[in-house]
Design brief:
8 strands, Glycerol-3-phosphate (1)-acyltransferase, alpha/beta, 450 residues, 3 domains, eight-stranded mixed beta sheet
């Protein structure tokens, strides 16, 4: 596909997108996107998401916004001609940075002209205004490229209310995990036309003003922990205190948006506490860090501590049920372990964990169907009657997903047994962790209510 026609849909692209959306619904256990009604209709749009998880951020926007999107991505991914053609086919363009070499920056002019063409056709762009991804839930300074493109496109429309920048907050339950949860929060669009007259008078000032507005508004739609000294403490409290925070806010729902709203308010309160009462924040931090270290030492998760103990009347039948369906787990494991393990092994070559989910997803999209096809051919040759072959084919992905779910529940069941037995024998360290957690909740209640 020619770069100049990057926004033209092809049959191949549409078919691949349908398959990719299907795969993403398998890869993620839950995807929740809110405020999509704020996305303008019939206008040139630039989506501006926070950037934390490599290619998966782009796919998250593409799969939830309801419209085709042209993306700008880091230029080093386009170095090989074959890869460049493939990425162009996927409606992706390179953007060059200072680290790519001063001589390469001039190529951005051609790319910017193409993106302006996309917007003047009233189509959709997605640029990551931070310029690169980070593993922290924190908004970093925004680069200027997006705003230069926005104003160039707005020049085509003059003072008409045309180009819209839509902030998008993205948050993952776990960046690297399969079958995790993802939350997207589409924000109120920012009309570039409001700054167009200022841009004509002094472009640099208009760019900086628009950049600051996007920065301020994007912060509202994402998890943004700006407090560096206590980042780990606040991040841990998202797990420990979210349920209590929702109770304080009278939020009865348990969906991702409800958790997000509670987290935002908690972060705001804690960052104010850090500014106004360092001693109180330090005391809280000491407790939280001691608690999280203790929980990790046991190999537990915080959710276990929501109960003092787990009833053996529940654990015993649960364990027997897990034993009964163990053969189904073994079946799913045996016939899915190869395509499941290969991406995990490849991830070890990537030092940046933010690429791990991308590797798992992209490789899995193609590896699993090829592997299943090979098994189906072998079944076709060596088994009969025909209906058995088709049942075998259908069983492969279903039991593969079941095996993964079974493994997760087996780990949870094992933890519940250990936790309950340690409670029964009154393990001193565990009892101290329970008391410490109650102290944290009480201390947080005092901070939130004050």
């Amino acid at each position: 596909m020619s770069k100049k026609n990057i926004d033209k849909l092809t049959v191949g692209y549409v078919l691949l997108k349908i398959y990719e959306v299907f795969c993403s619904r398998i890869f993620y256990r839950k995807i929740q996107a809110v405020n999509k009604h704020l996305i303008p209709k019939g206008k040139p749009i630039i989506f501006a998401p926070n950037h934390q998880n490599a290619v998966m951020d782009a796919l998250a926007v593409l799969n939830t916004c309801g419209t085709p999107v042209v993306f700008l991505a880091r230029a080093d991914a386009f170095r090989r001609p074959f890869v460049e053609r493939m990425l162009n086919f996927l409606q992706m363009l390179p953007v060059y940075r200072q680290r790519d070499g001063t001589g390469e920056l001039a190529k951005n002019e051609e790319i910017f002209d193409i993106t302006v063409g996309v917007l003047t056709h009233r189509n959709v762009l997605c640029l990551f205004p931070e310029g690169s991804h980070s593993n922290k839930r924190k908004l970093r300074p925004l680069v200027k490229g997006m705003f230069r493109i926005a104003f160039r496109a707005q020049e085509f429309f003059g003072e008409e209310d045309a180009v819209q920048i839509v902030p998008v907050g993205i948050d993952y339950e776990k960046y690297t995990n399969f079958r995790t949860k993802i939350f997207l929060n589409f924000g109120k669009p920012i009309p570039v036309s409001e700054y167009f007259m200022s841009y004509q008078e002094e472009s640099a000032r208009a760019i900086n003003t628009l950049r600051q507005r996007l920065f301020d508004e994007l912060k509202q739609y994402m998890i943004d922990i700006q407090c560096d000294e206590y980042y780990d403490v606040i991040f841990s409290l998202r797990t420990i205190y979210n349920r209590s925070m929702r109770s304080h806010l009278n939020i009865t729902e348990k969906d991702l948006y409800s958790r997000f709203r509670a987290d935002k308010e908690m972060i705001r309160i804690l960052e104010e506490t850090e500014q106004n009462d360092q001693e109180k924040m330090k005391s809280l931090a000491d407790m939280v860090r001691k608690y999280t270290e203790g929980v990790e030492k046991f190999g537990f998760r915080d959710w276990l501590f929501n109960r003092n103990s787990y009833s053996f009347l529940m654990l015993i039948p649960f364990s027997l049920a897990m034993l009964v369906i163990l053969p189904l787990f073994v079946y799913g494991l045996l016939f899915n372990i190869i395509p499941y393990r290969l991406p995990l092994l490849l991830c070890k070559k990537f030092k940046d964990p933010q690429f791990h989910s991308t590797v798992k997803f992209v490789l899995g999209m193609f590896l699993f169907p090829v592997y299943y096809l090979i098994l189906f051919i072998l079944a076709w040759i060596f088994t009969s009657p025909g209906w058995i072959k088709w049942i075998f084919l259908v069983s492969l992905p279903l039991t593969g997903l079941f095996a993964h779910t079974y493994y997760i529940w087996w780990k949870k069941l094992r933890s519940m047994w250990r936790y309950s037995l340690m409670t029964m024998v009154k393990n001193d360290q565990l009892q101290n962790m329970k008391v410490l957690r109650k102290d944290i909740l009480k201390y947080m209640d005092e901070i939130v209510v004050t």
